[in-house]
Design goal:
The protein is mostly helical. It has four helices and no strands.
Length: 211
């Protein structure tokens, strides 16, 4: 039994080290690769399966240690109430040692089982957090890309509006030019008519003077 509890203590120590690694403030890239390896590696999956079987044996040891602690505690209480245990120092020391070892084994196996549950829950919480952070980064990139596309679309719309304004101004200038051209043509026709009438009137006056 001593070897079993020694292995249980080593397992508890390894759980404490693993917990410190899981909650350590690692960079996001390192933590993502680490948890991706732990969650997808077949070797880690086989190792985790072996640990589940080991924790079953630890649970059996916890139940046995708990029963021993209750039995030794009951014997100590009975000895104190009857007063028989106080007469023999060796018996009292032996009973106290048995009580200490039973309590130690109970706490050792109990903490080992409890920390295994904490490690499992912590692992999946951090794994979900990493997936959420990855989805958030992806969504942020898509949003930034959409914003850039929207800005580019707005720039194109602004350029189109400016071109429309320039085209409208050019068309307005063209209309003004047509109007000026038409007015110039009308003025030219009026000038030609007046010149013809003037020449006709001047020619008639010259003929009368000769007569």
């Amino acid at each position: 039994m001593c070897t079993s509890y020694t292995l249980t203590f080593m397992l508890l120590a390894s759980e404490m080290v693993t917990f410190c690694i899981l909650v350590a403030p690692l960079p996001y890239a390192v933590r993502r690769r680490l948890f991706q390896f732990l969650s997808e590696s077949p070797i880690v999956a086989k190792f985790a399966y072996g640990l589940k079987i080991t924790f079953i044996f630890v649970g059996i040891l916890f139940i046995d240690a708990l029963q021993r602690m209750w039995r030794v505690t009951a014997e100590a209480d009975l000895a104190k109430s009857s007063g028989t245990g106080m007469q023999d120092v060796r018996s009292e020391t032996n009973l106290a040692a048995r009580k200490f070892y039973s309590q130690r084994n109970t706490y050792l196996t109990g903490f080992c089982l409890f920390l295994s549950l904490v490690l499992t829950r912590t692992f999946y919480i951090i794994l979900d957090l990493i997936h959420t952070q990855g989805e958030y980064a992806k969504l942020k990139q898509e949003t930034a890309k959409g914003s850039r596309d929207q800005i580019a679309t707005q720039d194109q719309s602004r350029q189109i509006d400016e071109l429309k304004k320039k085209l409208a101004a050019a068309e307005e200038k063209s209309r003004d030019y047509d109007i000026v051209k038409k007015q110039a043509k009308q003025n030219q026709e009026a000038y030609d008519r007046l010149a013809t009438e003037y020449n006709a009137a001047t020619g008639a006056n010259s003929d009368k003077r000769k007569d």
